[in-house]
Amino acid sequence: MSDKRRITLKDIARELGISVSTASRALNSYSGISADTIKLVKDYAEKHHYVPNSIAVNFRKNKTQTIGMIVPELVHPFFSAVISGAISRANAAGYRLLISQTDEKAKNEILACQSMIGGNVDGLLISIANETTNIDHIQEFLDEGKPVIQFDKFSELLDTPKVITDDFESAYSAVKHLIDQGYRKIAHINGLMAVQNSIDRFKGYKKALEDHGLEYREEWVPHCKSISEGEGLEFAKQLMNLPQRPDAIFCITDLVALGVMNYLKSAGIKVPEQVGVMGFSNWKISEVMCPSLSTVDQHGFKIGAKSAEILLNLLKENSQGNHETYKIETDLIIRESTLK
Amino acid sequence: MSDKRRITLKDIARELGISVSTASRALNSYSGISADTIKLVKDYAEKHHYVPNSIAVNFRKNKTQTIGMIVPELVHPFFSAVISGAISRANAAGYRLLISQTDEKAKNEILACQSMIGGNVDGLLISIANETTNIDHIQEFLDEGKPVIQFDKFSELLDTPKVITDDFESAYSAVKHLIDQGYRKIAHINGLMAVQNSIDRFKGYKKALEDHGLEYREEWVPHCKSISEGEGLEFAKQLMNLPQRPDAIFCITDLVALGVMNYLKSAGIKVPEQVGVMGFSNWKISEVMCPSLSTVDQHGFKIGAKSAEILLNLLKENSQGNHETYKIETDLIIRESTLK
DNA sequence: TTGAAAGCGGTACCAT
DNA sequence: ATGGTACCGCTTTCAA
Question: Nearest CB to B3: which of A58, A59, A145?
């Protein structure tokens, strides 16, 4: 294996009988350098395949042209889409993307942040883990003067720009659609109320019920801990066995809706005739389910691209930005599961 | 924006009244340092959240503890799983992962490689784009003495270790299962024969037919260009309208199988009774389809983890490894679409 | 066991 | 227009 050392500025300077600073300035075409010298140095550099050692440059400038990105889960259609959007935007601007995942564990998030700080990323894109309450490890970036953008799942404790789904509006219009379809006893399988998305979707759900004079019952709003297919199935069973049985279920996620659909199928309950089902996220599975699942498209790619864009702008301005919240609009996707 | 500089070794040394070298040695637990000093320094470091500036370390050691990873597509259940496996393995070893995607375009792959080289990654994990024929941009890593691992889609022109699905065996056993179920006229919607995976799956398919004395017809093996749902639908239509109509279809991917199923459903052809359908990859959609789709689980996570592991070992040995091929075994997942 | 200092490869400031 | 040099933060050799 060749371990041929790369040629350095010093080598160039020595060979050409000039100083290192002159060589550096020539290569970067600074003003105040004679055209002759520039040509001399550039020709020599090219001929000998000089490649600047970017570690040294980074070290000196304390910049890496690298952005850190931390998500709870990578194998997840929504987050993959977000990452994809961020990579596209960042790469287009000549930035690299360092990616890590937390599996929703605070411990992993801390490790990831340390690793990112250690990697001297110029800025951070993060969607915080469900488990995270203390946010010192993220605050550290801000303390170092590095911009941070929170997307999707965020903490109010961090003063950073945020890019999020418009959960309230999305939930409202999803539930309104159920009402328009004639459903009257609408349940909502929600997430934990410690997570802002869950809170906002719940608020949208409740407001829609209120605005249309429909009954709200606490027993119709169970809370998932892990947002899993299994929980969807269990809660559907629970809801269907209530004395006051709902005639529609608005699920926090398509995966939960899948569990719900599976239970309803096994119990011989007809969707959408007897019970309407609405998901959230528009994963590919929602299109494939039988009956196909009505849901809300979250535009993950756009969320990622927008987050990266904001970060890149802050990097350019050398600022940490304001604390604005950018809400990315959603699309209601109507399919069979809610069309009575 | 506070710009309080991160605390450095020098700060620690000054505060504790020791020298920088002692502080460094204490933090790295060198032998020849008193336990007291080690404790003193480590406690101080922890208390003040000292994080070594890895650019400086990297600079010094000419290593970045960062691995580059390039995939064709990020929003893809298989590749997400591979990435996830690689991240887990790499992070556990204290390595960071720089990720880029090519959208199957050679041009993007070249850009991604340049960016990775500029980022001074220590090694590269890559699944090459369908479009890629010239591999100079990847060879460059090898020329610089950096190890490269190819996974899933590779080029024989590159002398590197490879981690791949055992496509031949997987295809063979998938087709054998169809035969065992009584299907006799088995079609195969394949990918482009320029891609090794397609070639191997085709070989496995053909060998299974031969071993069981079944007829092979070229018209039964159409080739997808983009491996899409739409192509699956089109080819299914084509196959079903052949005078010699197949009674089973082995698809290159679950997505293609979805298109096939949609066509069969629309044409009123019963699965699995009239036509059996087999996918490949075991995406979530295969479980959700109606009828559920038999398929082959590729263990993407394992492929990613194994690739990272091999790379990490080479990094440790400071070698570029042999040109061994590691085949990751698969699991045949039998569901409704092939159970006559 | 500890300290001093060189040096990694650049950049940029201060002289000339 | 060019050279000299300090310096970024850390590791490591040499001395004490």
Answer: A145
